[in-house]
Amino acid sequence: MEEKRPITILCLASEYKGIPFLYECKRQGCRVILVAAQATAEDPWPWDVIDEHFYMPDLSAQPDITYAISYLMRTRSIDRIIALDDYDVATAASLREHLRLPGMGESTARHFRDKLAMRMRAQEAGVLVPAFTPLFNHARVEAYLSQVAPPWVLKPRFEAGAIGIRKLDTSQAVWQALAELGDQQSFYLLEQFVPGDVFHVDSLIWQGEVVFALASGYGVPPLAVAHGGGIFTTQVLPRSDEQTETLLRLNAELVRELGQKRGAMHTEFIRGEDGRFYFLETAARVGGANIDKMVEAATGISLWAEVARLEIADIRQQPYTLPPYRQEYAGLITCLARQKHPDLTAYTDAEIVWRLEKEYHAGLLVASPFADRVTELLTSYTTRFAQDFLAVQPPKQDVRHTI
Predict the structure, then answer these.
(1) What is the pTM of this model?
(2) What architecture is the 196-388 domain classified under in CATH?
(3) DSSP state string for 43-106
């Protein structure tokens, strides 16, 4: 009798991330193939759990990536293609369509990569979104500018997080920006700037339903940090808060509307000055900026490992059960540092569970059974980080994956 072959998972990685996913796949007996961007070649990939690896200059370049993965398929039976980075979500969807593999296809992936598509879909579902307009028709843009009060934000439809976003205060500035964009302007949208507090919900989805979700709140909004520098913080919200219940409900509505069947989802909302929550954006991935570590510190749930378990359960046609988890609290603080190797030894609180080791960055993760203690520590650390580390003129960094 022919020996049953192992499940083969091919992972696309434009960035170094998803390491717990790779470990869980190998723990469950899968064969792991990594196709990564050449820029990650010096990163410490866990080679003991990777069976084969290949590098490419740009994983999104077509038709190169389709040719490359199709070539691998000639001699390898690949069961699933998984995107480890936000920029790989659309590429993985395109490859699944081309190679007729299970998983999220191009139409659904558009809801998670195209800021215009996700807004339109959320609005159709009755979820509040800031007033926006596509930039296809200039008469429509003119009408929008006359009806919606400034300021506005010009957003690239296919970038991640706060990348490429511009805040504009006058209609003249808008038309000037569109003129500068030229033929690229249809790849942008215009949206009313809504000041307020920004929140995120990090979820796991199985068979189209949320099986795990955790609501958290940023300190300074990520857009402000990305454009003006400063200190990035986020922390798990008290579970009994009314705003937590609202965020989890809105997130569940979006999951049902956007069509993701399984995997992770990172969704952001803003609470405007009118007290209402508006949808900002979503992504079919584990949140970046070490948010996965914060989730695990508060709950014991490794989002990356659970994404692997979800996918493997689907391949094996087995039920998926979320493991038991804690309902504690955690908070994260990071900033660009003026020192190449910031000295964090003066930070000695027992609640510190992780320290960021990255050149020109300072960062800590704290965890506690009590939300108030996390708030107290982050408040104190924000002042101390500003004095001890914060770069006045930060060195040039790749900030694509802020969140």
Answers:
(1) 0.91
(2) 2-Layer Sandwich (3.30)
(3) S---GGG-SEEEEES-TT-TTHHHHHHHHHHTT----EEEESSGGGHHHHHHHHHHHT-SS--H
